[in-house]
Amino acid sequence: MIVALGGRPFTGKSTLARALAEALPGILLDTAALRKVLFPNLVAAPPELNDWLYEGVLKAASWNLDTAPGTVIVLDGRPLTRNRDVLSLRRFASSLGHVLHIVECVCPDEVASARARSAAAGVPDPLPRPKDAGTDPIPEPKVVVDTCQPLERCVSTALGAVSSPSRSGVESTFSESTHPT
Hints:
The chain contains 6 helices and 5 strands, in the order βαβααβαβαβα. It is α/β, with parallel strands linked by helices. It has a single domain, classed as 3-Layer(aba) Sandwich (Rossmann fold). Helix 1 packs across helix 6. The longest helix is centred in the N-terminal third of the chain and has 21 residues. The two termini are about 30 Å apart.
């Protein structure tokens, strides 16, 4: 099974990905962590480097799923806010014969902006873009998690969706959000 976290910047994807990988348990494959290890002095990565890192993470996912059947992969790579990225990831999971669950992290713009400011520490232009700036809604099926909720509740919501035997991540949808979007 592959669980991919998506959502706009500073919506809590990485925090939830780490917690989910621990709770499932699963292998967390995180492009930001990989970038920090491979390129420790790089402040902002160009798109080509992000693509290269994501390809590496997908190769690692494939290898882990091939060599250890039953492994759960938690992907914290792309925001999945472009339809082509979601379709590509679905094709990838299907080609491996594994179920893909997409967990979309959401929070109000003010919360994402506050998170960005607190993480800024010398990073140029860390603020998230407006919702409609070159992004597409993440298509169904997906689980929507309001990351303003306590982390334990976020994990529980995501686990409920990805662990349910009736939810393959392809045929059905589960969505829980406690704030207006």
